[in-house]
Design goal:
The protein is mainly alpha-helical. The chain has helices at residues 2-41, 52-59, 63-75, 96-109, 114-135, 138-153, 160-178, 181-193, 205-223, 227-248, and strands at 79-82, 88-91. The protein folds into 2 domains: 2-91, Orthogonal Bundle (Arc Repressor Mutant, subunit A); 97-252, Up-down Bundle (Four Helix Bundle (Hemerythrin (Met), subunit A)). A two-stranded antiparallel ribbon has the order 1-2. Strand 1 and strand 2 form a beta hairpin. The longest helix is centred in the N-terminal third of the chain and has 40 residues, at 2-41.
Length: 268
């Protein structure tokens, strides 16, 4: 009797699979159309998109299909579904954290080790420094100088979190100064995945002093408009993290890429 029940359950599942697949395919198609509508209308983040009733009429789909389409866009950071009075379907700006989460899941499921992420950063950041030296403005360089000064003012032992945050600021400023928006997005994403602190890497007072000096050399090369020198200094700088991992955190060399939490959520 149990075998008959199991066979019947498998038969029902097999019959339901094509329908479920078709439903998901339809939802993905509608999600693409919704996205194109948002882009074409140039809706700003925070804008109300439309009501469910309006969308059901426009796309002529069932409510479950529409809701799945909206959830697809919500998972991509394009929409926010706010329940209750004053809520609705709100347009959002996809965040770098959302992109980093998706990439981290992709890499983790393929067992890509942390060291490989570091290697990717070592390719991207020198290219950004090269472009920053050529395209950066005096305003960009002043912001980089201010970042270095803030680092110097921190207490190396007690302000490690603030130091790490300022380090991210400096590298973000280099990426912005490059003027290459695609590489800037790549760095912002890889920079989150390659952050040593999320793997337990700690920076000594000596490490922090080396970081400040490296940042100054990079800035000096940028101000001299010497792209090759800026790239070379950045390459040495970002490779120092790999060297630190190889010297003191060898267990991380083959450690899988950590999954980055979606905004507002945490990964246990």
């Amino acid at each position: 009797m149990t075998n008959q029940t199991e066979r019947a359950a498998r038969t029902r599942a097999a019959r339901a699979a094509p329908a479920a697949s078709m439903h998901r395919g339809k939802a993905a198609h509608v999600a693409q159309q919704l996205l194109e509508s948002i882009v074409a209308a140039r809706l700003a983040p925070g804008s109300s998109f439309a009501t469910e009733t309006e969308l059901l009429s426009q796309f002529n789909v069932s409510r479950p299909t529409l809701r799945e389409s909206l959830k697809i866009l919500e998972s991509q950071g394009v929409l926010e579904l706010r329940p209750g009075p004053g809520g609705g379907i709100i347009v959002r700006q996809p965040s770098i954290d959302t992109l980093a989460h998706g990439l981290s899941v992709f890499l983790r499921m393929r067992e890509v080790p942390f060291i490989t992420v570091l290697k990717a950063r070592e390719v991207i950041e020198p290219a950004l420094a090269f472009e920053a030296a050529l395209n950066g403005t005096e305003k960009d360089f002043a912001a980089l100088h201010d970042s270095i000064e803030r680092m110097k003012a921190l207490d190396a032992q007690s302000d490690q979190e603030a130091f790490l945050e300022e380090n991210r600021v400096f590298h973000s400023l280099i990426a912005r100064a490059s003027g290459n928006h695609v590489l800037e997005v790549f760095w912002s994403t890889i920079g989150i995945l390659a952050a040593g602190e999320q793997h337990g890497v700690r920076y000594s007072v000596g490490n922090q002093a080396h970081v400040i000096k490296a940042h100054q050399r990079i800035l000096d090369a940028c101000r001299a408009r010497n792209g090759e020198a800026a790239a070379a200094e950045m390459e040495k700088h970002v490779m120092s993290l790999e060297n630190l991992v190889r010297d003191r955190y060898q267990h991380l060399l083959k450690h899988p890429t950590s999954i980055v939490a979606l905004p507002g959520r945490s990964i246990a």
